[in-house]
Amino acid sequence: MSTNFTPLALVAELTHRCPLHCVYCSNPLELAKRDAELPTQTWARVFREAAALGVLQVDFTGGEPLARTDIVELVRAARLAGLYVSLISSGLPLDERKLAALVDAGLDHFQLSFQGATEATGRAISDTNSYPHKLLVLSWLKQHRIGVTLNFVIHRQNIHELDAMLALVEQHRPGCVEFASVQYYGWALANRAALLPTREQLDHCVSTIHRAEERLKGTTRFVFVVPDYYAKYPKPCVGGWGRKLMLIDPNGTALPCHAANVIPGLQFENVKEKCLLDIWQTSSAFRKFRGEDWMQEPCKSCDRRHQDFAGCRCQAFLLTGDPAAIDPVCSLAPTRSRVDAILADIHLRVPACPEEKTEWVYRPNPG
Amino acid sequence: MKPELDATPRLAPGVRLNESTQQPRMLLMPERVLRLNRSSLEIVLRCDGKNTVRQIADDLHRLYSTAELQRITDDIVEYLALLHTQRAIDF
């Protein structure tokens, strides 16, 4: 069975190994082991198949993609295949020579993550002291003509540092800055109680970011990812299931999104056994929520279904137990009260101060 | 921000055209793509840091001579301002 949808982006989750242990990591709770990771040549074939399928961009992510010793080869292979190559990275492990080699190999865009705007917050979130090194990486990046995005993941434990984050942006003036509110899957869901911001914090954050966006118009493009628990309508998750995006995990499993394997009963294909075209068109997991036939009311007859595709399937499953249900963050969802109850509980808690030891689970490293 | 007529626009870091063998032609940028029609492609191809806005307008006027030069110049300035806000070009 073929499909009219063409994937535009390939997310290549190269490894689950990472020097950081962020409490909101979006990797699955069951991490892929090093010896199960795809070899260089298999990835190179995947990039060629992706380009032939119509994919324009590949995002190298992880874990930490730089943990792959063949990262320069992988960048070269993706670029040779005709893809636009982004590295989504913590900046560790990296030195000036390695960065120059990555740029030489054809790296188009470096997205550097920040856990906060101070060393202490960075350490509290990631259980690693990476902040000073990130500032070094930022200075090295300026010596190359590639795209640079600073990515700040925002949540209750670092939202008070927003002004300092914006000062960093104004100082370095990257082409793009992303303020991404934590989305609650994987490790973030396990640590949700410590991470959800209050409505007051969020409102202050949004207005501060909008003012900075105006100030830096024409210099830095701003992207703000809203915390969807506070939204009126759900996010158009991954641009719609099986419509625009394909993710390959470190073992070669092809997923419609990074969290898809939380949904029970889905059968996933592996790039070691099948080509990407075959997987995109025939994988039952990709077809399961593609299009609109699977939708339930109120989505089925709602005009917004063309915009948000009924929201996120993984979130629907995680919060209601039914992956075909309307995303419960939607104000039209009969299950919205569950999200409101979670938010009401957060409001009762005093926002933690950074010095206070927070009770949470750090994401470990796979074996 | 609108460019001056003697400004020399060029693609911003991390922005490039897809390969000429790939159709349709698009501007590839961090986390997104911009589709280009025939005339926007002709403009973007000239954003090389050497051509001035005036030269680009002259070229496009030669290509699409049915419109007045002033009208074409105004349209190009508008389009370049949009690309600048999108962080696709610098000038």
Chain-wise SSE layout:
The complex is a heterodimer of chains A (367) and B (91).
Chain A: E1 9-13, H1 40-53, E2 57-61, H2 71-80, E3 84-89, H3 96-104, E4 109-114, H4 119-126, H5 131-141, E5 147-154, H6 162-172, E6 176-181, H7 186-190, H8 192-195, H9 199-215, E7 221-225, E8 245-248, E9 254-255, H10 276-282, H11 284-288, H12 305-308, H13 313-320, H14 336-348
Parallel strand pairs in A: 1-2, 1-8, 2-3, 3-4, 4-5, 5-6, 6-7
Antiparallel strand pairs in A: 8-9
Helix pairs in contact in A: 1-2, 2-3
Chain B: E1 10-11, E2 16-17, E3 26-29, E4 32-35, H1 38-45, H2 53-63, H3 69-85, E5 89-90
Helix pairs in contact in B: 2-3
What would you note in describing this structure?
The complex is a heterodimer of chains A (367) and B (91). Chain A is of the alpha/beta class and 367 residues long. A nine-stranded mixed beta sheet of chain A has the order 7-6-5-4-3-2-1-8-9. In chain A, helix 2 links the parallel strand 2 and strand 3. In chain A, helix 1 packs parallel to helix 2 and helix 2 packs parallel to helix 3. The model of chain A has no long low-confidence stretch (mean pLDDT 94). Chain B has 91 residues and is an alpha+beta fold. Chains A and B meet through strand 5 of A and strand 3 of B.
